[in-house]
Design brief:
Radius of gyration: 11 Å
Number of helices: 1
Strand order of the largest sheet: 1-5-6
Strand content: over 45%
Structural class: mainly beta
Shape: globular
Distance between the termini: 17 Å
Largest sheet: 3 strands, antiparallel
Number of strands: 6
Order of helices and strands: EHEEEEE
Helix content: 10-25%
Amino acid sequence: MQRITFTGTNYDEVKRLCGDKVLAPYFCMGFSMLSVDTGEGFESVNEGDTIVLDDDGSLRIEK
């Protein structure tokens, strides 16, 4: 299992972990967010959320 906390400024690290399952960050009301395809659809990731890559290759978001 690997995990990374999205800080709003570490998109390159998130991209290395998630590959093509992550959409480029966007800014909303002063905060950056991005979307990750968890296999069950895209889920929003806010600053401070943790993205987890499980050993089976699936992604999940911990709020």
